[in-house]
Amino acid sequence: MEFQLFYQITGVLVLAGLIAVVVSFLRQPSVIAFILTGLVVGPLGYMQMHHDTLDALGQIGIALLLFMVGLELDIKHMKRLGKTAVISGLVHMVFSCALGFFISLALGFSPVSAAYIAVALTFSSTIVVVKLLSEKKDAQSLYGRIAVGFLVVQDFAALGILLFLGGSSGHGDIFSSLPGWQYVVAAVAKVLIIILSLIYFSKKIFPRFINRFGQSDELLTIFSLAWALGLSAFMSLPAVGFSLEVGGFIAGLALANSQVHYEISARIKYLRDFFLILFFIVFGSKLVFGGVVSMLLPALLLSAFVLVVQPLIMMFVMGYLGYTPRTSFFVAVTTAQVSEFSFVVVALGSRLGVISDQVLGLVTLVGIITIAVSSYMILYTKPLYSALYGILKHFDFKHGAAEKQFKGEELKNHVILVGANRLASRFLHLLDKSREAIVIVDFDPNVVSRHEAQGFRSVCGDIADPYIQEQVCLNTSKLVISSVPDLDDNLTLINAIQNSGSEKKPKTIFLAQNDFESKYLYELGVDYVLSPHFISGMHLAKILEDKLFFKTLIKLKKGHLDAIL
Q1: Backbone dihedral region of 461: left (phi > 0), alpha (psi from -120 to 50 degrees) or beta?
Q2: Which among 3, 40, 6 is positioned nearest to 20, based on CA atoms?
Q3: CA angle 9, 10, 15 (to 5 degrees)
Q4: pLDDT per position as a tens digit, 90-141
Q5: What is the per-residue pLDDT across 175-207, written as a single tens digit (0 to 9) for each?
Q6: How many whole angstroms separate alpha carbon 445 and alpha carbon 142?
Q7: Residue 407: is its pLDDT beyond 50?
Q8: By CB distance 3.0 to 4.6 Å, which of 138, 242, 293, 311 could disulfide with 332?
C-alpha cells in the first residue's frame, strides 16, 4: 500500500513524458501535454485514490511559481516599457475583459462565474509568446518588443488580481465579524502591516541570512523553500485571510532585491517545474468527458473570442496609436491564447468555492484550443498576413505615423540596405563615402536608432511588408543589398522587385546560408549572392598568398577587433 502513491506518480509522469514528446513534434508548448495527460487519466479513475495528495503537491508548484514571479519582479521595469506597451496592454485588457464578461453572461453563466471567465480569457501567455518569438528570432523586432512589453503589463495586472482574490478568500479571518466600514479599515490595516513587515524583513533581516547561507548551495536552497512555502502556508491560514498564491508572491518579492535572487531562481526552477507538472495534470483531470458535450459550444464560442475578437481589439488599439497594419497584426496575433495565470485564477476560484468545476473545465478546454491554434498563428504570421492583407490594410488609421520616417520624401537611384547588422555595416561606410543615397531597413529598433544617430536614413520594419517597400521607394532604387539570412524574406523581396512595374530593375546582392540557397537565388535572377563560406575561403586564400603573411595577420586581427569591440 505504501508504494501505491509512488506507482501512481510514476505512471502519470511516464504518460506525461510520452505525450510531451508527441506534442513537441507538433511544435506545441509542454503545458498542453500535461493538461492532456490529466484528460486521459481523469476519466479512468486512476488518480482518485490519492487525488488530494496530488492536488496538494500541485499547490506547491503554484506557490513556487508565484514565488519566482515575485523574485524576478522589477518594479522599475514598468518605467522602461514605453507608452505603446502600457497603453496597448491596459486598453486591450479593459475591452477584452468587458466583452468577455458580457459574452459569458449571454451564455448563461452567473455574474461571478462570468467575471472569473472574463478575467481568465483576458491574459495572454508570456511563456508561450516569448518562446515562439525566440524560435522565430523576432524577440528584438519592433513588434516583438511591443508584444513582450504589453505582456509584462498584463502580468502586473494579473498579480494585482490574484492579490485581490487572495485577500477576499477568507471570510473566516479575525476581522470577518466586524461590521461594514470597520471591516474595510481593518482589512486595509492588515495589508499595510504585511507591506511594512515585508519591507523590514527584506532590508534588515534577510541580508544577514543571505550573507550566511549564500556560501552553501544546500542552505540557500532549503532556506528559500522554507521561506516560500512557510509564508504561503501562513498567509492561507483562515485567521490571516489570504491565499497561498499571495503568500508565495510576497515571499518572492521580499527576496527580489537580494544579491543572490538569480541564484535562488536557478535552484528553484526545476523543482517548481516538477510540481507544476502535477498541478496541470490534476487540473486537466477535473475536466471529465461526461461534461465535454455540454461545454463544447461555449468553449468553441469563447475560443473564437480569444482567437479572433481579442486580436481585432489589439489591431484597433495599435492602428489608433499610429502603427502599420503589419506591425499591428503581428502584435495582435500574440494575444490569441490564454495564460498560465488564467489557470491559476480559475483554480483559485474553484478552491474558494465561488465557481463550479464546470467553469474550471470550460477554461481548461478553451486554454487547450487557443494555445494550440495560436502557436501555429504566431509561427506562421507572415503567410497569414499576406492572405489577410486585403482586410488588414483598412486598420491603417493614421497611415503608419508611428513608424513613418521619410514624411513622403521621394527617393530615386538610391541604395537600399536590408539588415544593417555587422556584416552589412562593414560596407555601409564604403557606400557612404561614395556619396550614394542610402536607405537602411531593419526590424530591430535599436539598430535603426543607432544608424539614425550616425546620420543614415533608416526605417524600422520588415522589407517583406508592401507598406515598407513603398516607404523606401523600392521601385525607383538602383541597388538592393539584403544581408538578412531568412530565405523566405529574400524570396518575398525578389518577387516584389520583379513585380514593381519599374522599367529598369535595380541590381541585387543577396545573402545565402549555403550552396543550395546560392544556386536557387542565382536561378531567380539575383546579380550576386553573398555566401559566407565561399567568401571566407577566398579571403583566407588571399591572406595565405601574401608574402608578408605574419604581418598581415597582425594587421587583420587589429582591424577585426576594432570592428567587433
Answers
A1: left
A2: 40
A3: 100
A4: 888 899 999 999 999 998 888 888 988 998 898 888 777 877 777 777 766 7
A5: 555 555 565 566 667 667 776 777 777 677 766
A6: 6
A7: no
A8: 311
- Of the candidates 60, 467, 15, the one whose C-alpha atom is nearest the C-alpha of residue 226 is 60
Where along the chain do its domains lie?
4-390, 415-530
- Could you tell me if 309 and 99 are in contact, meaning their C-beta atoms sit under 8 angstroms apart? yes
- Residues 482, 483, 488, 494, Cα dihedral to 10°: 10
CA dihedral 541, 547, 550, 554 (to 10 degrees): -80
Confidence of residue 26 (pLDDT cuts 50, 70, 90): confident
CATH of domain 4-390: 1.20.1530.20
Residues 6 or more apart in contact with residue 355 via CB below 8 angstroms = 112, 113, 116, 346, 349
> In terms of Cα–Cα distance, which of 283, 273, 274 is closest to 367?
283
Q: Cα-atom radius of gyration of the chain, to the nearest Å?
A: 28
Q: Give ∠ CA 318-323-329 in degrees, rounded to 5.
A: 60
Residue 45: CB atoms within 10 A of its CB come to 10
Distance CA 239, CA 206 (A): 25
d(CA 32, CA 155): 21
Q: Which of 146, 101, 152, 144 is nearest to 122 (CA)?
A: 101
- Report the alpha-carbon distance of residue 333 to residue 132 in Å, rounded: 12
Question: Which amino acid belongs to residue 41?
Answer: V
Helix (H, G, I), strand (E, B) or coil at 547: coil
Which numeric CATH code is attached to 415-530? Answer: 3.40.50.720
Q: Which residue has the cell 484597433?
A: 316
For the residues of 433-473, what is the DSSP string, one character each? HTT--EEEEES-HHHHHHHHHTT-EEEES-TTSHHHHHHTT
What's the grid cell of residue 78? 514598468
Question: SS3 string of 351-410?
Answer: HHCCCCHHHHHHHHHHHHHHHHHHHHHHHCHHHHHHHHHHHHHHHCCCCCCCCCCCCCCC
HSE-CB at 419 with a 13 A cutoff on CA atoms is 17
Which of helix, strand or coil describes residue 509? strand
- Give me the residue label for grid cell 587589429: 558
To 10 degrees, what angle do helices 51-71 and 217-235 make? 110
CATH fold match for the domains 4-390 and 415-530:
no
Share of the chain residues as helix, strand and coil, in percent rounded to the nearest 5:
70, 5, 25
Q: Which residues contact 8 (CB under 8 A, 6 or more apart)?
A: 46, 47, 49, 50, 54
The rounded distance, in Å, linking the Cα atoms of 339 and 310 is: 14
CA angle, 159 then 164 then 167, to 5°: 120
CB atoms within 10 A of CB 57: 19
